[in-house]
Predict the structure.
Amino acid sequence: MSETWIILGATSSMARAFSRQVAGEGARVLLAGRDIDDLKRAATDLSVRGAKSAEAVAFDARNPESFGAVISLAEKGEGMINAAVFVGSMPPQEDIDADPSLIDGTVIDSFTGPARFLQALAPIMEARGGGTVVGIASVAGDRGRIGNYVYGAAKAGFATYLSGLRNRLTSAGGHVVTVKPGFVDTAMTWGLPGMFLVASPDAVAASIMKAMKKQKNVIYTPFFWRYIMLIIRHIPEFIFKKMSI
Amino acid sequence: MRWNETEYAGWGRVQTAHGEIARPERVSSLEAILSEGSVPAMGKRRSYNDACLNSGGRAIDMTRLDRIISFDADKGVLEAEAGITIGSLARIFAPLGWLPKIMPGTGFATLGGAIAQDVHGKNHQVSGSFGQHVLSVTLLTSGKRVIATPSRNKALFKATMGGVGQTGVILSAKIQMKPCPGEMVMVTERRAEGWDEFLSMLDTSTATYSVGWIDTTARGDALGRGTLEEGELAAGNVLKHKGTLSVPINAPGFALSAPVVRAFNSAYYHKVPVKGRTSVKPLDEFFFPLDKIRNWNRLYGKRGFYQFQTVVPTAQAPALREMLKQIAGSSLFSPLAVLKRMGPGRAGHLSFPMEGYSLAVDIPNRRGAQALVSELERATVAAGGRIYLAKDALASGDAVKAMYPEQGEWAEIVNKADPEHALETDMTRRLNLRSTT
Ligand SMILES: Cc1cc2nc3c(=O)[nH]c(=O)nc-3n(C[C@H](O)[C@H](O)[C@H](O)COP(=O)(O)OP(=O)(O)OC[C@H]3O[C@@H](n4cnc5c(N)ncnc54)[C@H](O)[C@@H]3O)c2cc1C
Ligand SMILES: NC(=O)c1ccc[n+]([C@@H]2O[C@H](COP(=O)([O-])OP(=O)(O)OC[C@H]3O[C@@H](n4cnc5c(N)ncnc54)[C@H](OP(=O)(O)O)[C@@H]3O)[C@@H](O)[C@H]2O)c1
């Protein structure tokens, strides 16, 4: 029996790489996002690459009214329903400094929008006896830094939410993988200064697949970010507050 | 769209550029960029030279526009965005029974790059060049979408095949693929003990795919010795694709110095037994042997290398032998040297192939390299042959115009499509390729 994968934020190149992996395993894929033209192109691509079926569906994290249609479309499939969340936005911190109202949108895109969606999906997953949620958090959520602390705070919130959701879904047979990427070579980081050890979207997708198979809870990708963040988290606050990293 | 200001290079790494690059991930972003004016496109920059460089200007990296647009599983007709690589097409479609008709020696070439250089494969003598199997291209040119096929916008279509990106950004293309029985190739390897034997083996080969490796360090009686690989597609599946290795840093100068290459080549030659051998290999090992080692171009150290590829008419084989002699006598050799039989197939005005023999060699960028390449280029012109615009880094415009008699006709079509010369690259400027006189 084939599974359904809902991909939120499916226009992201990280999502594209991941969708190709699940399509290759014959899943039914629902590509949810705002740019329907692009998602339709992606859907055709996935069908040829082995998806049982692939469809584009409108989803806007800032408009909860768009959530229901995605969920009912998913329910039309038989087997397990899984969801992968790639939605997120990272306006430059200086834009936020200039216009603090940008905080709201950043938090909705990266945290509360997807959380509300998953909250509506969870009972259906429970009723079907499990399924997998993959949530893209970020190393930026592990410690607030001057360069992007609003985005970091939203991702920290999302990671905490995922931890609670894992707690909830485990008893129903479900599983939640929290993914904390370092720098990934996508549209979000293209041309930004200060990028190093940048991973390809394909490498990230492969590590997520591996993590799902091994039922990992929280992964850093590439793996060495676990150690980088271990160090960064352990810098005492009285030193950290004077640093600029 | 954010522009990334960066230093970048062709595969040989001798030529570099500094400029701004955009990498759109969806068609609407590409169209938005081009609505403000034309910008040259580049693929995976597997051209060795400056064909994919635009110093001081802007360029579009097409590699994220890599989706399949349609596939007719009965006819084997595929349409895809231009940034998809030939290697991924092989990986996706071989299990479904189809393969691109023409595949260059690297799977990392993109569909757009394969068209823009009208690339050839190990089956050129049988199946012609890449552009001969293109059914249509969708170009973004001067802010408009234009579809060109062999019968519609004919002149533009022909100028696009091997047209080094000068007719517009290739957004997508439709190609005819060929049926294939599986993911394997049956490979036969035989030794050729010297030049004459090698040529006659190439001439008499009836294999669909054939390619010769030539030992450029061999001199005297052994001059021109090497091994001929012949392949036929075969049934069978690859269970697990092997991982790749990577060259993480620039190798020191001695890594590919003359004595090292001499020793390596001798061992490589003797690995094939006197009686020859036959084996079954996965497609990518046969078609893209070098792709197993990522960034192998770093083996040549930070000064990089030139690749020289020439083709001469069949009757001019002795001239090619002289060129080989010159390389063998220079100590500027490398393990990578390929001898191929070519057929007449070509799709565009500036397509490289011609009926004859082609020799491709890597030449490390050491003292004497430029002089050697210039010598070889002179010899090519004298033999009525051609050098390849995906490889050459040193030629002059006059020599190239002499080798490509249709260049003037091409330039007229291209200058109409891009009257502002916004699509020029470092190579077209170096060779003054767009001049009609
Ligand atoms: C190891 C190796 C083996 C090779 N073997 C062969 C071989 O056997 N036969 C052969 O013919 N070649 C061979 N090549 C050369 C290679 O196939 C060509 O250089 C090819 O063009 C590379 O494709 P690319 O996507 O990297 O294009 P690039 O090198 O990035 O670009 C090549 C040209 O295409 C243009 N271009 C690229 N994409 C577009 C687009 N979307 N729209 C418009 N213009 C575009 C660029 O402007 C440039 O002029 C080999 C190269 C390597 C490194
Ligand atoms: N790149 C990195 O280095 C990195 C590192 C750590 C974590 N991440 C996270 O990885 C995820 C994928 O990002 P990416 O790097 O691939 O960048 P991206 O291309 O910008 O992807 C962000 C995705 O979120 C979608 N999105 C944003 N706001 C939305 C909204 N209101 N409603 C619906 N969709 C919305 C975008 O859709 P549209 O196409 O409609 O805009 C896009 O698909 C993000 O969560 C990001 O925070 C990235």
